[in-house]
Amino acid sequence: MMSFDLNQMGAARKLLVVIAFTALITGCAKGTKPDAEGAVDEGAAGAESGATVGTIGGDASFAGTALEGKVISYEKEAINDPNNVLSIKTIYFGFDSSEISETDVEVIKHHGKYLSLNSDASMRLEGHTDERGAREYNVALADRRAQAVKKLLLYQGASASQITIISYGEEKPAAFGHDEESWSLNRRAELVYE
Amino acid sequence: MEIKRWLLIAIVAVFSHTANAVLKIDITEGIEGATPIAVVPFKVDVRTGLKTDIAAIVSSDLARSGMFSPVAETDMIARPTSPVEVDYKTWRIAGVDHLVIGEVKSTGKDQYKVEFRLFNVYRGEQVLGYSFNSSRTHIRTTAHQISDLIFEKLTGLPGAFNSRIAYITSQRTKGKPIEYKLQVADTDGYNPQTLLTSKEPIMSPVWSPDGSKVAYVSFESGLSAIFSHDIRTGSREKIASFKGINSSPAWSPDGKKMAMTLSKDGNPDIYIMTLDNKKLRRMTSHWAIDTEAAWMPDSQSIVFTSSRSGKPQIYSLSLNSGARPKRLTFDGKYNANASVSADGKVITFVHGGNNSYRIATMDLENRSMQILTQGPLDESPDFAPNGTMIMFASVDKGKAVLAAVSTDGRHKHRLALSDGEVREPSWAAKRY
Prior knowledge:
The structure holds two protein chains of two kinds.
Chain A: H1 8-26, H2 44-50, H3 58-69, E1 90-92, H4 102-117, E2 123-128, H5 135-155, E3 163-169, H6 180-186, E4 188-193
Parallel strand pairs in A: 2-3
Antiparallel strand pairs in A: 1-4, 2-4
Helix pairs in contact in A: 4-5
Chain B: H1 2-15, E1 23-29, E2 35-39, E3 43-44, H2 54-64, E4 68-70, H3 88-93, E5 98-108, E6 111-120, E7 125-135, H4 139-155, E8 164-171, E9 179-186, E10 193-198, E11 202-207, E12 213-218, E13 225-230, E14 236-240, E15 246-251, E16 257-262, E17 269-274, E18 279-282, E19 290-295, E20 301-306, E21 313-318, E22 326-327, E23 334-340, E24 346-353, E25 356-363, E26 369-371, E27 379-383, E28 389-396, E29 399-406, E30 412-417, E31 421-427
Parallel strand pairs in B: 2-4, 2-5, 3-5
Antiparallel strand pairs in B: 1-30, 5-6, 6-7, 8-9, 8-31, 9-10, 11-12, 12-13, 13-14, 15-16, 16-17, 17-18, 19-20, 20-21, 21-22, 23-24, 24-25, 25-26, 27-28, 28-29, 29-30
């Protein structure tokens, strides 16, 4: 239907935006890159902790830095502006994890604020996983990822009635390879405005 | 090698006429130690006009079990079709333990009588003989029935050939959404029929115990829902479409209840629904993921996957109220999606570790685990009804295929679509 029909190119482009954006905030390229390179197994918690960002000095400095590359505004049409921070609509995760990196927390906060200021806006929140492991466990894992995002949206004043969660597990990959490059693009939550 | 070549020839010959994409079978590992058997091409009355090679179907069935090594038709030293033509001595010299012969007679338009006999070559005697009424549309079923009878006579175990499998296919065409299909087919992949086609995912197909229905999860409405689909009438019923996930349906052994995973109360937990009144009983209540329930054959307990220890592991849970889950797997950091053997003695599941996901079994009595496959992306294991094989999904050369492994791990075969991907096999306990 919508952006979950991303082809690999589209997803890769989004990823680049996220990385560039993160680099702007943190001054290093570690940030929200979906995962560490190479083999990720049960030790993915390590990759997650590698994504911790230590230098965001509150909302003001965050906004200031982001403005260099991304516009922050919550006008109704802001979600369609490719330069707006709300254009970041994919959140990536570590293997078997529903933890959200600090940088992505900031991105989600902007979406929460948008929803709270635009009460007629509604969102499909889609949870996805990579292909590894059991399919039904992955549906449950994807649900937890989407729930984690939803919690942050509600925290910003979004209403539960604005958000519909759908958990696809590994059934709708964004990238089709059987390697870490594709897996890191597939462990995601997508925020789809309807 | 010989068997593999022979099978390929036979399969190309019979499968090339169907319009629906058919699963192609390849024996990939382990034919040594199997019992040599010769299934001689049946004598066919020309008036039947029958083209189907019953002997080839029976040979293919027996070869897939891993317990038999059928003689290639081209290597047969003789072609007897009646008992008087059987010369035991020549078959003994050829090292063949068992011999099957048969005949198809016409009994009317597209109606046949099919007879077969099984001989023990060393004892020099017939050990089994049957006659069936069959027809053009039922001839493959008759062939699988013959396979089941031979298998049971020679192994003491019920055959599982005359049954069906269900599975999901997905076809990705450039510039188009993925097309998902729920299909059912004979256990040799022949006669595929599509129960549902969708642009949204279909998953978790599972047979009712009597083989008349398939339950599955469909996202066709944009949200997940569990359906029960009657394969004879094509009618279906929406069983669960709660807020949140509706996942992992599992029929109780009597077919009257269904275990499922729902997150309607905030978190993925296991519930049991009584199907005639849709009443739900919540079985787990934990902040972690609980999912993938499978019933023990006595209906007194289930096994399921839970991440309550931090990583997915298999647990068992008595259905008596107040019971607490017991952890079954401790080896490795990822054990999920258990399926239970029909005798309740063994479970099979996905065992992950070192970036590889493989199919393993555990003996529930002594808790010993055995890894049966190589990975790296094996999943969805399901026991054959007689417990001799496990069918599962795998990725082979970048493509999703079905595969089967004998429970001793020695024999493997693969079922692949020439076009598109196939996954989530479920093997019916019987053919309805």
